[in-house]
Amino acid sequence: MRHATRNSEVSSVWPAGLGRALARRVLLAGLAAAFGLEPLPGCAHDIGLVKPPIEVPDVTVVSADGVSAPLSDLLRGRVTAIQLMFSKCKSICPIEAATLARVQEALEAVRDNSTDNIQLLSLSIDPATDTPEVLKAWLERFGAQRGWTAAAPAEADLGRVRAFFDRASALGEDHSTVISLVDRNGRLVWRSLELPPPDEVARLLVQLQRAGAASPQTPGQQ
Fold first, then answer.
1. Which terminal residue of the chain, N or C, has fewer Cβ atoms less than 10 Å from its own Cβ?
2. What is the structure's pLDDT at 185?
3. Which residue pairs, CB below 8 angstroms and at least 24 apart, start in 112-118?
4. Is the model's pLDDT at 11 over the cut of 70?
């Protein structure tokens, strides 16, 4: 991965019309993550280590390159951070993409072969709109480099994708804002807090890749 997105570019993704209430919720989520506070009780059981790891569903996706393939093929052999999105979203999705852009920067700062088989995946939940051309434009908008890709499921598989990756949002959004970490065997091993700190996501990805293990350590463990 190459360093690409400057802080000024990332900051510009905050929509001018984003309501103060949403901005406040985002700030509170960030503070909660920074100080290790507990997530809201309704989603507490969905945060952190997934044990035992769960294989991702056997669904078909179409990538930004126009290639149709099983999602497992896209994931296998790489440690992957997956974030749900849709290109028409004007509120939280650009903020989520900015998070991945900063994860990309943090991985670039590592500068060793521990990042060679790490990838970021923007996974659309609007396959009717998010064609390969639209997904490619989304990636370009946020400075995606090699190792950050996007894909959309087949319409018939959308329900299974949402059932597996989506969770109720404490921020009032209609889709999850967590980042799901998948190991090199295509198994879900970790769910982050909503809008997690980018450096923490990068650290967990590198740890998974270096260890070649099924799951990272709990944040704070050495």
1. C
2. 94
3. 114/206, 114/209, 114/210, 115/1, 115/147, 115/205, 115/206, 115/209, 116/209, 117/77, 117/78, 117/79, 117/184, 117/209, 118/1, 118/78, 118/79, 118/80, 118/81, 118/147, 118/205, 118/206, 118/209
4. no
Q: CA–CA distance from 106 to each of 125, 126, 194, 209, 215 (Å)?
A: 26, 29, 19, 15, 20
- Which residue, among 90, 118, 92, has the nearest Cα to 104 in the 3D structure? 118
96-128 confidence digits (pLDDT tens): 999 999 999 999 988 676 677 999 999 999 999
d(CA 185, CA 183): 5
Whether this prediction's pTM lies above 0.90 is answered by no
